[in-house]
Protein 1
Amino acid sequence: MKSVALLFLVVICGVAGWGQKLKPKKRSNGEEINFRTKTKDVCTMSMSGDEEMKLRIECKSQGKSYWCEYTGKPSVCRPFRNNPKLYWNQIAMELRKLPHACESTQVLKATMCQKAPADALMKQIAAGMEPEDLANHDKSVQKTSASVRGAGKSSVKKTGKPAILPLIKPTQHGQGSENDTEAMKLAREHCWESLHGFCSYIIGIFRG
């Protein structure tokens, strides 16, 4: 009877141990943590990977956005394996103390893994900045250049053709003016000086 009871206890312990081994490991993949930096930048950090993990941080600040990526093996830290969520929360707490989530530090470490090997540290591998108003700026430049081109075309249309000035006909010297000249000559030759105009008039009548 005692042997049966002992065997039953062994079976129970074995099943419990086997179930404990099959218990899924705590994971933090796909989780996101939102936070704000010391300068009020709105940021989101997301984690991916298994043994070697990748951390991506994306932030928005004053009309522009920036991002950076870290990589490391926090799994070599035993406290991380026990509670990865606490690990990432501590990382977020450290980032909240910084004025810039990507430029202020090249290495991230949680307080719970201070004594862990160097491989456990999250080291920055990439970073960048993307102005959000870049597309709007390009559109405004295109509109401005189009308006300038339109104004240039209209000015060419208006000023392209030279103005047509009215023709001024030269004064035609007719036969009458010649007659007047001849009459004045004769008047000067045959009349007193005081009567030049009268004589010229009379001679012009007779010659006309």
Protein 2
Amino acid sequence: MVSADFAGRPGKKLVLFDVDDTLSPARQRASPEIIQLLRELRKQVAIGFVGGSDFVKISEQLSVGDFNVLEEFDFGFAENGLTAYRFGKPLESQSFIKMVGEKDYQELVNYILHYIADMNIPIKRGTFVEFRNGMINVSPIGRNATVQERHDFEAYDKEHHVRADFVEILREKFQRLNLTFAIGGQISFDVFPHGWDKTYCLRHVEKDDFEEIHFFGDKTSKGGNDYEIFSDSRTVGHTVKSPADTIRICTELFLS
């Protein structure tokens, strides 16, 4: 039986959303239409976000108008759930650096920076490695790229497989560290310990005993950062290509 906290919702279900290209364009603000969808949806089911970015970035994308991210989502999972909120209150968090150790972390980052320095791609900007609480984010072009530069790199990457090739080299070189490398968004990939993918967030909702947990994401193919939670036996996965797709499918499934 679903937790008493959610007994008043007609649907005893939880609907989880990836952020980039699911609720908003990558690193851009969500539309008023998405905000309206979320508010209508929450009258029927429990809702949550699960993103790879840190909470500050996710909040920037979803804080539209008077929409308060922590108050209007039942669950908030930043960094795959390593930073987690339930009804706006923080839950236990985890640390990448404690798990990996400073010595191995420095070896990994030094190798990444040397590799990027030798990489021949059309443009490079800044912030090639971003340290987060539960992972690191690696961007060959740099996270300081403009929106247009992100679009251009994404197209270049689809043709030249820059990130996929980089990931394969790191996976082989640092196999002993038991790390997962997950490509997500337009310009980067995440690095985190095995098991710290987006399925990590599911441990925070187990006690609520939802009848179904639905997940919506765009990078659901193997190697994408939505793949593990999309294909997990505990979830019903839905692949979307844009926020408009999310609105259409959610309306058909939960609001018709």
Protein 3
Amino acid sequence: MMDATSATGVLHPYWPRDLLIPAYVANDRSMSEILVFLFSVSGVFLLVTWLLSGQKRTNGRLGTWRRLAVCWFAVCGFIHGVIEGWFSLYYDVIPGDQSFLSQLWKEYSKGDSRYVIADNFTVCMETVTAWLWGPFSFWAVYAFLTTKSYRFVLQLVISLGQLYGAVLYFYTEHRDGYAHSELGHPVYFWFYFVFMNVLWIVIPLVLIVDAWRQLSEAQTHADNKSKRH
């Protein structure tokens, strides 16, 4: 991607090319450094949760798919609470800030420049995601590891919130004509913008259906029990 010069004379790599980012300072961290950090820390959360979820409990061990779901919530807790939490706190200084997480957001913004211009939708959406779905995701991990009765209620609530946010994220950019990314770029558009966000549509949909079934079975059992009495 070639850097573009805005009307203020500041070079930046974002779309649209005439975007005004007067405070922008280019990253001094490479794309590989940033991605290795993101996936390494996510991998640690996944591994630790996988090991914890494999321990035997009074009601038996969790199945493979349930353990994977718990791992998903652990990774979500990290991404929502830490990565997106950083954005929700420092969105107004990220373009010129050289902190590692600010540079991560400047790198991601090559796929969606709304994050370097403090777009109202992204600020509001990421703030809700960080401060609700981040803590709730860690709560869900705890609930499944300790077999709390409300664990599938948490799964349903979190997944509905994630799905709603992701649908709005894509739909608002569609309404803007995909103006904030280099349409069709294999890394910035397809990997950053599409793949890294479509996960929060596909996986929550699966978990919503799963929670629906679990809660329906529990209600059916409760109904049948009440009839017998």
